[in-house]
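Problem: given the chain below (124 residues), write out its structure.
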Amino acid sequence: MVRLITHNMLACHVRNCNKDNFPLAFADVDLVVREAEFNPDFLRRFLPKLDWPALVDTARSLGDESLPDDMPAAWSDEQLKALHHVLLELHVEEGSMNCRGCGHVYLIQNGIPNMLLAEHEIGR
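Solution.
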């Protein structure tokens, strides 16, 4: 399933695509919310790996306004639960992720993104 925790680490790798290739922009998505067990310790450990501005922009593009513009220095339980919801409970089932740089489209079907590239698209 494409969750925002995964999406926050995906970039376009088409040959010569090195500008505006992150984050990939969702389009025509079927979004599903699936509850997941809340684990604040996991979230705290994962925070340094996040690209916060990309996460906030992506969440907002999907209609979730719960994250603040800037990453909090100290996290309340309410803020951690909002982060948990965005990272682990929002699932993109269908749609696409589109590169803003080269326009490549990565289709998502049954929750699985197709990140494979044709041979002529692979960077060397």
